[in-house]
Amino acid sequence: MRYHVPLSNFVTMANQTDLRTSSSMKHAASRTEHRDLYSGLIRLHILYHACKQPIFGLEMIEELGRHGYKLSAGTMYPLLHGLESKGLLRCKVVGVGRSRRHVYRATSAGQQALADAKDKVQELFSELFEDVMAQARRTSGRRSRQ
Ligand SMILES: [Zn+2]
Questions:
Q1: How far is the CA of 64 from the centre of ligand 1 (A)?
Q2: Residue at 63 is within a domain
Q3: How many domains, the chain?
Q4: Residue 133: exposed, middle, or buried by beta-carbon count in 10 A (0-12, 13-18, 19+)?
Q5: Distances in Å between the alpha carbon of 41 and those of 9, 17, 35?
Q6: How far apart are CA 21 and CA 67, in angstroms?
Q7: Measured in angstroms, how far is the CA atom of residue 47 from the centroid of ligand 1?
Q8: Whole-model pTM?
Q9: Percent of the chain with pLDDT over 90
Q10: How close is the Cα of 67 to the center of ligand 1, in Å?
């Protein structure tokens, strides 16, 4: 492990240094010209939720919308099918009232892929926010010396 600061600590530090991370992320994510940059993040997000509980397309469109990603059904379903054909998700058709719904769960390969991706995300995260974390360390160091 090359990083020593857990994510939860970072969030606290970011708040202390008054960085409005979530709102700036949201704005950047809604710019569709960067869709290709975010496609991996979107897949990871889907995989994360499918590891926690069974998911379905419309629900994930709403969930990703909450995080500032606007996806149409025409984008979401191919994403789900793609993850399924890679063996990361398994699809089951369930009856909901009179209609049928495709519900997806992560396979064990999907769970392993998410675990691997977490390491990569944390690695990238610590590099992207190196300066913020250094700043937060300086701030807390100053505070403890008082
Ligand atoms: Zn989410």
A1: 6
A2: yes
A3: 1
A4: buried
A5: 22, 25, 10
A6: 12
A7: 10
A8: 0.71
A9: 62
A10: 7
Q: What percent of the chain has pLDDT above 70?
A: 75
pLDDT digits (tens, 9 = 90+) for 19-52: 444 455 555 544 555 778 899 999 999 999 999 9
On whether residue 86 sits in a domain, the answer given is: yes
Residue 2 lies in a domain: no
What is the Å distance from ligand 1's center to 90 Cα? 19
Expressed in angstroms and rounded, the spacing between residue 139 Cα and the centre of ligand 1 is 31
d(CA 71, CA 42): 10
CATH of the domain at 48: 1.10.10.10
Does 73 fall in a domain? yes
Boundaries of domain holding 134: 7-145
Distance, CA of 3 to chain centre? 19
Contact status, residue 107 vs residue 92, Cβ threshold 8 Å: no
Q: How far apart are the first and last CA of the chain?
A: 32
